[in-house]
Amino acid sequence: MTNSLHLPDAVDETSAEPGTRVLHALHVAGWLSTERFEAWGAADAEPALSRLQDEGLVRLVKSPRGEMYGLTPDGTKRATDQLTAWRGAAAPEEVTRAVSALAGFEAHDPALKRLVTDYQRDPDGIGERLAAFDQDAAGAVDAVGAAHPLWESYPGRLRAALERVRGGDLTYVTSPLVESYHTVWHLAHRDMRVLCAGLT
């Protein structure tokens, strides 16, 4: 992957495995329903989820939102250990690239917070306003997607949410029940902080 955080071949291959993607998604998001894993790069998550449950790393609970998966304490440890391995594989210039991607992303965070606050007061024109924000933040968002294999889905997920909003579905502005723009932005921010906390 061009301009990505360097990983030795064995670690890089591991990062693409559905089980690894599932653990990482739950480490960042907390709880997810089965259909949400596709956005994280684990399109066929059910076999991985079944295996991870058998290994005691993932648990399934019934909630008002339906069946949700989350990490057990052992699963949290496994996901944390994977992050530690990826951090340890990074060359200094690649660490700088990841940390810079986080800084560039965070520079746009206050503007999105203002946009969401304004939207809650007045939803009119949110498609155009969100599109203008997305265009302004495009360089920073693309830098995030190029900085680490586990971050590569975020640009596409944000733009997919934007297209839903521009098509009139305003649940894709802020709803946590779908891959809304604000939800994906929040997850990307948390994801970067989780990794970069051990790099700075």
What does this structure look like?
Helix 5 runs antiparallel to helix 7 and helix 7 runs antiparallel to helix 8. The chain is built from 10 helices and 3 strands, in the order ααβαββααααααα. A 3-stranded antiparallel beta sheet has the order 1-3-2. The protein is mainly alpha-helical and 200 residues long. The N terminus is likely disordered. A hairpin with a 2-residue loop joins strand 2 and strand 3.
Short description:
With 200 residues, this protein is mostly helical. The chain is built from 10 helices and 3 strands, in the order ααβαββααααααα.
- Poorly predicted runs are 1-15
Q: Separation of termini?
A: 23 Å
Structural class: mainly alpha
- Rg over CA atoms, rounded to whole Å, is 17 Å
Tell me what portion of residues adopts beta-strand conformation. 5-15%
| Tally of contiguous helical segments | 10
Order of helices and strands: HHEHEEHHHHHHH
Number of strands: 3
The largest pleated sheet is described as: 3 strands, antiparallel
Query: Which range best describes the helical content: under 10%, 10-25%, 25-40%, 40-55%, 55-70% or over 70%?
Result: 55-70%
**Would you tell me the overall average pLDDT?**
88
- The best one-word shape is globular
Spatial strand order of the main sheet: 1-3-2
